Amino acid sequence: MTEPDLLQRHRAVLPNWVSLYYDEPIEIVRAEGRRVTDGSGRTYLDFFAGILTNAIGYDVTEISDAVRTQLDTGVLHTSTLYLIRKQVELAERIAELSGIPDAKVFFTNSGTEANETALMLATQYRRSNQILALRNSYHGRAFGTVGITGNRGWSASALSPVKVSYVHGGYRYRSPFAGLDEAAYVEACTEDLRDVLRTTTSGDVAALIAEPIQGVGGFATPPDGLFGRFKEVLDESGILLISDEVQTGWGRTGEHFWGMDAHGVTPDLLTFAKGLGNGLAIGGVVARGEIMDCLGANSISTFGGNPVSTAGAAATLDYLLDHDLQGNAAKQGATLMAGLREIQSRCAVVGDVRGKGLMIGVELVRPGSQAPGEPDPAAAARVLEETKARGLLIGKGGLHGNVLRIAPPMTLTDEESAEALAILDDSLAAASA
Ligand code: PMP
User: Fold this and answer.
1) Considering the domain 6-59+326-432 in this protein, what is its CATH number?
2) Of 282, 318, 290, nearest in space to 84 by CA
3) Order of strands across the sheet with 28-32?
4) pLDDT exceeds cutoff 80 at 341
5) Which CATH architecture has domain 63-323?
6) How far does the centroid of ligand 1 lie from the alpha carbon of residue 111, in Å?
7) Which of 129, 291, 322, 367 is paired with 28 by a 20 to 30 Å CA distance?
8) Which residues line ligand 1 (CB under 6 A)?
9) Which pTM was predicted?
10) Strand partners, 385
11) Kind and range of the H or E element at 29?
């Protein structure tokens, strides 16, 4: 609970398109591990921060120490006009981890900026402003990225600086190809891609951008191999593949380090942000050197890759690799997935449970409605209130706002998984009653 006054002041001075969760929005004032405390002293298990910000949890000593050591030098930032050792070191590591040959890295402060940069690079490199994106996608909140975002609810402006065509693929549950098995679905989407290329573009397209699992779109998870088939089609015309790993990167999907790895393909460009900073502002784009160096003039990001953010990011990377958090994401994800599927078997409001690792979506539908079920955003809002009342924070999303999003920090323990499952079980029952 927040003092009502703060909520009123927020509403008065911040734009009305900045949405808040909950009937009574909370202010988080303290946090540790996977738990956060609000202004009234209530503590919650945080099952959403993992994806938004705190990939490995709150108050991690190794990360605080790395940031403090940098602060102690007195250098919060200088400028990219001088050498920044931490930035170079982190770029070297990310270039190597990306699997992209001859890779270079450019740091930004956010996922939006990372995708804006990727768009600029791809369009310049290909000398084309035609972009392919997926229906139900989300890529950011600035002019270009809003322009390519396929999820209408999060595409605040309809004016786009690029010409975008949307293809099927990400959101299988409500796709016209939903009834097909995985292999046939992949082929149907690949045929759709060919058709869109042929009929809505000049063929001279810069890039296709895709989230390996659609985040804001409700953790919509395409079958493995889909983007591998897409890449074969793109390669016929030299079209670049941009993997937006802002939510799927750093091992969160459990089985792979990057979401795109499940598709057996290395993208031409990869964008990242959110979890890498574990709460600090950092993002970036990785691309083959030839693509990264294609711009014709100077460019700068004043704060992108500053010594404080890169110190925190390097410590985050060390921590998640040293503690095999990808392995833990796979393990805890399997427990949560099995528990939620069991709940689904006896809870008519749950239409679909999907995802990978610690990105799990639960799509809610009106019980008794015709398959795949009428979307029930009101039920999702009720479940969020019910989980909050029981001390658990989760997210929601999806094209219709009817998908629960479960994305805890990757340091999650067995006990916390069990605790959250019990709360979700009770909350779903209460919200369906
Ligand atoms: N891409 C994806 C897949 C995202 O989920 C988001 C944020 N929700 C962004 C880009 C934009 O990132 P940011 O909010 O850091 O600008």
Assistant:
1) 3.90.1150.10
2) 282
3) 28-32, 35-38, 43-46, 392-393
4) yes
5) 3-Layer(aba) Sandwich (3.40)
6) 5
7) 322
8) 110-112, 115, 138-141, 211, 215-216, 244, 246-247, 273-274, 283
9) 0.97
10) none
11) strand 28-32
